[in-house]
Design goal:
Structural class: mainly beta
Helix content: 10-25%
Number of helices: 1
Distance between the termini: 30 Å
Strand order of the largest sheet: 2-4-3
Order of helices and strands: EEHEEE
Oligomer: single chain
Largest sheet: 3 strands, antiparallel
Radius of gyration: 20 Å
Number of strands: 5
Shape: elongated
């Protein structure tokens, strides 16, 4: 009987940042993301149309640790 072959789990790097796009009028969402480490990196004026109104987007990102890996 041969011993079971044990394969080492493969790992791959995670993304280097976590991006998020929020409506500019969503002050609570923007404040929440700031509290957990996101920073504003840009804005997109009139990015879309919702319920007949033009909406602006706030782009935010949180940089992740370069050593983060997933199994």
């Amino acid at each position: 009987i041969q011993p079971a072959i044990r394969a080492e789990p493969k790992t791959r790097p995670l993304a280097s940042c976590s991006p998020v796009a929020l409506r500019a009028e969503n002050a609570g969402g923007i404040a929440f993301h700031r509290r957990i480490g996101f920073v504003e990196v840009g804005r997109v004026a009139q990015a879309g149309l919702k319920f007949g109104r033009r909406i602006d987007l706030v782009l935010m990102q949180k940089l992740l640790s370069p050593g983060d890996r997933t199994p």
